[in-house]
Design goal:
231 residues, mainly alpha, globular
């Protein structure tokens, strides 16, 4: 390996590490926004009444979350880095409002415990996705198809109200989001190696943070359903 190749390799590694630092930084900021707003909302009778006193309000917030995610994902090339970051925080805030319900259903101790369990699993799988030499693309495609199946099944089960279906989708959901954490981390790492434009890297960092944020939150919610202690 020539000196130029060694230098280029070091630069590439530094770029990837800087990019991933931005990704995890944004993700942490999103968690902080969601957690603080969820906790505050759960202890505000006014906000609880506004959000959960009318089913249409809660549904509207959920739809708004979906629309923001779609906007970030589909319009990322035309968005400025500032707007992409703003929309990410909007989504994190909306999610905080809707997730406040967990403080009404589960004890604070069990929420904290499950959060740390989720963080440990997420950390291990994200590290695996970063260091592994195995191409996880095929596994990712299978996991995404499985996720689609779970979403469809969960929607149908709203009407069936089957506890067995609920628990099957819950355990499958844990496996799927554990796998997606590794897959998305590897995808984000490769993203950093392929994009050289500074502004685009900033926006890609937001996209990467959003994907890992969603993996963590969904894994947390599925584990909470399993291990959470109800009030």
């Amino acid at each position: 390996m020539t000196d130029n190749q060694i230098t280029a390799n070091y630069r590439n590694q530094a770029l990837v590490q800087t990019f991933l630092t931005q990704v995890y930084g944004w993700m942490f900021a999103g968690f902080l926004t969601t957690g603080l707003l969820a906790y505050y909302t759960a202890h505000s009778s006014l906000l609880l009444g506004l959000i959960f006193g009318n089913s249409y309000t809660f549904l509207g917030l959920v739809i708004a979350e979906v629309l923001v995610v779609v906007a970030i994902s589909s319009m990322i090339k035309s968005l400025s880095p500032t707007m992409a970051s703003f929309l990410f925080f909007v989504y994190s805030a909306l999610n905080g409002l809707t997730m406040s319900a967990i403080f009404l259903v589960y004890t604070s101790e069990s929420i904290t415990l499950v959060f740390f369990i989720t963080a440990a699993i997420f950390g291990v799988m994200s590290l695996y996705g970063y260091v592994t030499k195995t191409d996880l693309s095929k596994m990712g495609n299978i996991l995404l198809m499985g996720l689609l199946g779970i979403i469809i099944t969960s929607v149908v089960n709203i009407f069936l109200k089957s506890s067995m279906v609920m628990w099957v989708t819950t355990y499958l959901g844990v496996l799927i989001f554990v796998g997606l954490t590794a897959y998305d981390t590897q995808k984000i790492k490769r993203m950093a190696q392929q994009v050289s434009d500074g502004a685009m890297l900033e926006k890609m960092a937001v996209i990467g943070a959003l994907e890992l944020y969603l993996d963590f939150i969904n894994l947390f919610m599925h584990l909470l359903r399993i291990f959470g202690k109800r009030r």
